[in-house]
Amino acid sequence: MDERTWTPDELHAIATTDDFHIAPFRSDGVTLGTLTWIWSVVVDDGVYVRAYNGTGSRWYQSALAQRAGRITAGGMQKDVTFTPIDDEALNDRIDSAYEAKYGSSPYYPPMVTAKTRAATVRVDPR
């Protein structure tokens, strides 16, 4: 299996945990930023996250600039890449995944707004 794809076990661990922390590299491209707890979903064998505060979020800005960092989730730690997503059909499926995983949370509604959809990122192992 390609090291730059998630294994079925890793996808299952991420899909079933609420413990997902992200740390994009800082501007030097070497130092990791502070781990930030965020919501994650799995759609079509891909891992996706959104910035609750939209594109102005500090971690999102770092992820966009550096395109790499590290995550911890489901008992694993992985070096990863970040790719911004701008695909309406995919974002609709991501919305559905957020609803299925987090729909009962009072924090769910803001996660499916235009503001957060604009800050959707695919996370892949590197």
Structural class: alpha+beta
SS field, number of helical segments? 4
Q: Roughly how many Å apart are the termini?
A: 13 Å
CATH class: Mainly Beta
Low-confidence runs? none
The CATH topology: Pnp Oxidase, Chain A
Number of domains: 1
Q: Mind telling me the C-alpha Rg? A: 13 Å
Explain what you see.
By secondary structure, this protein is an alpha+beta fold. It has one domain (8-125): Pnp Oxidase, Chain A (Roll), CATH 2.30.110. 29% of the residues lie in helices and 29% in strands. It contains four helices and seven strands.
Essential attributes:
126 residues, alpha+beta, Pnp Oxidase, Chain A, 7-stranded antiparallel β-sheet, 4 helices, 29% helix, globular
Give a short summary of the structure.
With 126 residues, this protein is α+β, with helices and mostly antiparallel strands. The protein has a single domain (8-125), classed as Pnp Oxidase, Chain A (Roll), CATH 2.30.110. The protein is built from four helices and seven strands; from the N terminus they run H-E-E-E-E-H-E-E-H-H-E.
Topology:
Elements: H1 8-16, E1 20-24, E2 36-37, E3 40-43, E4 46-50, H2 58-66, E5 68-73, E6 76-84, H3 88-102, H4 114-117, E7 120-125
Antiparallel strand pairs: 1-2, 1-5, 3-4, 4-7, 5-6, 6-7
